[in-house]
Amino acid sequence: MSANAQMATKYKNSFLKEVEEQVEMGEWVKMCMQCGVCSGSCPTNFHPGWEHPPQEIFMMIRAGKREEVLTSPSMWMCTSCYNCIVRCPRKLPITHIMHGLANYAHRLGVAPKMQPTRHFAKLFWNNCVHTGRVNELKLSMGLYFKDGFSQGIKNGMAMKDVALGLLKAKRLNPFELFGGHKCKDQNGIHAMLKKARELEEKRKALKAAA
Amino acid sequence: MAKKEYAFYPGCSSQKGASASNYLTSVNAMCKTLDVKITEIPDWNCCSASIGYAEGGELPRHVLNARNFALAEKHLPGQDIVATCAACWLGARESKERLEHSSVLLQDTQEALKEAGLNIKAIPEVRHMVEVLIEDLGWDALSAPVKNPLQGLKFAGYVGCQTNRPFGITGENFENPMYLDKLIETVGGEAVPYDQKVTCCGGALAFSEPDKAQAQIKDIVESAYDHGAEMIVTPCPLCQANVEIYQGQINKKYGTKFHIPVLYYSQLMTVAYGGSAKEAGLDGQVIKAPKLEAIAGKK
Ligand code: SF4
Ligand code: SF4
Ligand code: SF4
Ligand code: SF4
Q1: How many separate domains does chain B show?
Q2: DSSP classification of residue B79
């Protein structure tokens, strides 16, 4: 059984309970009073493309719409602007719940496949933990080549002026491709992150088993 | 001995040849004038920024920050951590708060840190450079070294999100923070009022969803122009890059004629303190700032 099916079975009577136990800050969802301030404050709301603003997502969680929530691209559009958090009358850590939901859907493998921010987030994390420091050039290259080689060249060309500007200002270093900045204790960093991931998974499994 | 000493967390974007290297150049010059000593935390690592949640999850994200806390405690005992990047500051402060709040998270964090031969005793304070300037040095100390006031120049102080929310600078209002305007005025410039001061530029979505982020950036730049600003000033490397480097693409898309320099507060201060264009990192502007260069000391 897939990780997703396992969780769906375990929590079949309550998606809210699943969110409370498995999602970062999920225990806050029940505190929402549906006032809509977060939705009105969210910058992604001003432009088309935002499927469900936070208020709606929280309502859907309570209504048990598991599939619809976890496969939604909405959480991935959060820009981490924290507008919602500072305005919520109930003090919900909305930004973190949105991030937590995205992470949960991503781990279960049900988040939308080619969602660009999901793709970018994965690249970013891998890039940053590989050497302990972000390599901006490899990061952009990875992003441009998401949809294959020829599309990558096209994307790169579209960004040519931006890149040239940075290059001239000495804010982009072509030699980053062959190394770049790094931490000395990379082994320590890798070991510590592996342990952290194990511990986190263990705690979540314990909750699901209880 | 320097007046104040801090454990410095520069962040990836401020490294040599990276997108905010000119920020670091100007911070170094500014700190020298103000007699503030910043010592890099040895072997510091990236915090994974605000986008780290998706692949990293909760504990690994806090552990990344915790490693920096442990290194600062070990090598620079008793010093507050100071960050120049708004996202580094926010991420680190968030981790500090969560770890101090939850004994379970702290216990797991210690266990993970052991793998890197480290541990935490007491997490140092985590400050943004702007807090250090305002709270530890104070406005009088910031205006005292001004030699070349930026008289007659009009700036739009673009505060953006992450130095303002959710923590903010003490005493400030989320909807209309004044600290950046005050910094501009302290060095003799004029801060124009405009309505996009705390609008989000799209953050990391500038990379993954450029159309959405550029629509936000367009609103910000347009409003700065409409209110008579000649330059934009920011406290955050990603805000700076986002608002500066996509102006050309926005012009193509919307038929606008944007060409407005976007600077860091530390560049204004360095110039006002008598620093050269080079010391202020003005050679690092993608959109040059000739009016500031004209005031900068020749060296
Ligand atoms: S602002 Fe808070 S209480 Fe209101 S709808 Fe959003 S999360 Fe719920
Ligand atoms: S932090 Fe995310 S959810 Fe909250 S207002 Fe900003 S973009 Fe919307
Ligand atoms: S927030 Fe950005 S600059 Fe700061 S450490 Fe993280 S990745 Fe590097
Ligand atoms: S304005 Fe943009 S870059 Fe600056 S802190 Fe907000 S999201 Fe990040």
Answers
A1: 2
A2: P
**Which atom of ligand 4 is nearest the CA belonging to B201?**
2
What is residue A29's predicted lDDT score, i.e. its pLDDT? 98
Neighbouring-strand partners of residue B231? B155
- B21 with B110, same domain: the answer is yes
ipTM: 0.91
Identity of the residue numbered B193: P
Residue A73 has pLDDT above 80, yes or no: yes
Q: Write out pLDDT tens, residues A159-208.
A: 767 776 777 777 776 555 555 678 999 999 999 999 999 999 999 999 99
Check whether residue B176 and residue B119 sit in a common domain. Answer: no
pLDDT given for residue A105 in this prediction: 97
Domain ranges of chain A: 3-114, 117-195
Best mutation target among A44, A145, A176, A193 (most B Cβ atoms within 10 Å) is A193
Q: Clarify whether residues B163 and B239 are in a common domain.
A: yes
CA torsion through residues A99, B14, B193, A165, sign: negative
How far, in Å, CA of B299 to CA of A165, rounded? Answer: 25
Q: Count Cβ atoms below 10 Å from residue A184 Cβ, excluding itself.
A: 10
Task: Yes or no: say if B70 and B124 are a contact pair by the CB < 8 Å rule.
Answer: no
- pLDDT tens digits, one per residue of B7-61: 999 988 777 767 788 999 999 999 999 999 999 999 999 988 878 888 899 999 9
Determine whether domain A3-114 maps to CATH 3.40.50.620: no
Cβ distance of A176 and B44 shorter than 8 Å: no
Beta-carbon count within 10 A of A36 CB:
12
Tokens of A192: 């510590």
- Cα A191 to Cα B115: distance, rounded to the nearest angstrom: 6
Pocket test for ligand 4, best of B13, B209, B238 (most atoms within 8 A of CB): B238
- Residues A74, A78, A81: CA angle, nearest 5 degrees: 155
